[in-house]
Structure formats: structure tokens, C-alpha cells
Amino acid sequence: MPQKLSPISKPSELVASVQEKNLVIVDARAGAGAKDRYAARHLAGALFVDLEKQLANVPADASKGGRHPLPDLMQFAQVLTQLGIGPDTHVVVYDDKNGGNAAARFWWMLKAIGHENVQVLDGGLDAAVNAGFPVSSAEETPSIPEKTYERLRWTLPLSDINEVEKVANDVDYLVIDVRDKDRFDGKVEPIDLIAGHIPGAVNIPFTSNLDANGFYLSPAELKEKYTEALNGRDAQHVIVHCGSGVTACHTLLAMAYAEMEIPKLYVGSWSEWSRTDRPMFTLTKD
């Protein structure tokens, strides 16, 4: 295994590395019936991680942190041990939405605690199956890692609602909303209470990181795309958000794949912002 892994694993690479001793494959699909869908059909050997219960501390009131706040660090350390993940583990994580479900979120969380050997499977579940990776409906059992994570801290940059409010209209900063254009424009809102966006934010849908076949654009294409968007701004002056801090990680992953510095993640995102008295752009008022 190379010293520095690409954050993206091609399906053929996963097929080739299946016998690797320290490999742990994680299925991070989310949404209704995710665990049942995993149980019915998943990549052989893959372990399920639950966005709602293991990758977030879902609050009763989403106005305080959004719909998917980060979990307590001690809780996350326990989750990693349960999945058989330690500091020396090579993790490949996938979902059924080309990384836009929770695979990129889990990648970001591992990177944020300093775990370098983690990749997202390009194209997700179906791409691996098409490449010849076997599927299973068996109950999978994790191995106990030789070393475990105990004391953790988030080392990647984070933003919060107060900073976003302060800088959203500052030309020296860039606030990127990765939701689809109709949600950003306030035409539809399938999840949160109010349709619209944070005034001053720009819309770069995370789906634009992918080609027509659902695979990530090349690092060169992504670098050109985001270098133009940032327009000379330092990564510390860039904040990326979405609905609840999940799909925003898809864009952070894209920038890492392009060998760019990872900007700040605003985890609370629109789900938090839209439940407060902060200014909002909607179709009925600005």
C-alpha cells in the first residue's frame, strides 16, 4: 500500500486489494430502510455504518446544530472500534449515491481525526459490482483492530453559524452551498421547513463533481473547476455547506482529490440556518 493514498478508490483497485490484511470496507448508504437494503445486498465483507446513529448525534431541535451534528468524539472512537478500524486500517467506504450519501461524510470524519488511509469508492456500490466485486447478504463480523482509537479531536477546519453570518457577504470569503439548484433557488424544499438559501452564498451542486456516468471528474478537471470558483481565496476563507453537513463533504472530497487544501465545513448547514432568525433568501422575500 502506498504511503499516501488517493482519497478516491477506483472499483478495479478495490477488487485488486480485497485480500489486503488491514482492509475494512464500509457501507455508508443512508435514507429510509438503509440497513435493510444493506442486509439484502452489500459488497462481500462490508460493514454497515449508520448515519443517523453512528455518524451524527441527531438532536431533538435541528436549530441547534442542524439535522446531523457531528457525534461526540468518544462515541465516534467506539464506533471505529466496533467496525474494526484502528490507526493502521485501510478503509474504503461506499454508498449507493456516488459518494453523495454518507460515504464522503465518513471519509471527512476519518480524515478529520487524522486517519490518512481512507478512500471513497468511485461510483459506489453498483460500480464495484460491475467491476466484478462479489455481493453478499450474509451477516458480517468485524475483526478486532490491533490498535484502537481512544483520544480524538477534529483537526480539519470547521465553521459555525455565527462565522457564516459574519462572512457570507464579505468578498474576501466564499460560502458554497452544494445542494441542487432548485433547492438553492427556493423552488422546492423536500426536507427542511423553509426553501431558500443563505444570502451571499453561491451554488455549486455536489453533483457537478461527477461525470455523466456518476464517477468523479478527474483531479485536473476538479482543480480547474474549484480554482476558478475560489478565485484566489485561501481555503480558510472558504466555507462549504449543504442541507445538514453530509453532502457538503462530497465537495470537500472532490477538492482533496484535486490535491487542494480542504476548506471549512459548516455542519449545521441550511437545516440549522433556516430554523433561526438569520436572514434568508426565499422566493417570497429577500
From TrEMBL:
It comes from the Bacteria. The keyword Transmembrane does not apply. CDD domains: TST_Repeat_1, TST_Repeat_2. It comes from Runella rosea. This is Sulfurtransferase. It holds the Pfam family Rhodanese. InterPro entries: Rhodanese-like_dom, Rhodanese-like_dom_sf, TST/MPST-like. Keywords: Repeat, Transferase. GO terms for molecular function: thiosulfate-cyanide sulfurtransferase activity. SMART domains: RHOD. The keyword Metal-binding does not apply. Residues 19-137, 169-282 form the Rhodanese domain.
